[in-house]
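Below is how a single chain appears once it has passed through the pipeline. First comes the sequence as given, then the structure the pipeline wrote out for it. We keep one example in the README because the format questions we get most often are answered faster by looking than by reading.
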Amino acid sequence: MPYVETEIFVEATPETCYEIASDMEEFPAFMPNVDEITVLERGENWASTRWVSRLQGRPVKWIEREEFDPEALTIEYRQTEGDLKTFEGGWTFHRENGGTRIHLTVDASLGVPMLAAALDPLIRKLVRDNCNAMLKAIKAEAENSH
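Resulting structure:
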């Protein structure tokens, strides 16, 4: 199962970065590989969202549940149904040198053990590239917002 960790430094406050990352409905406006995010349900510090994204130009669809902790500045997510067998991870926002270090983790699995050895390195690269693109988009959005 590919596990990916990525991070980026942003010249904005952790609160600003957290606010942008937790407003996932807006991702399609500034993330080229995210086509659509629809909030299905929302509660206090959680949401259920439907995602339509592209991985190497191919549509990938899933529903996930996000758990938000505005005090700890963390977001955890877990796919509840969709194209992958498992898809989960989290975001953390740490104050650093007058800005923010955003840390993003993704744990994903296709659920086909026979193909895992051959496909895991490719999937890991695709997921890492996608995560880096998301982080760069949030960085640009946060640094342009103040």
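DSSP finds three helices and seven strands in the chain.

See the next section for the split statistics.
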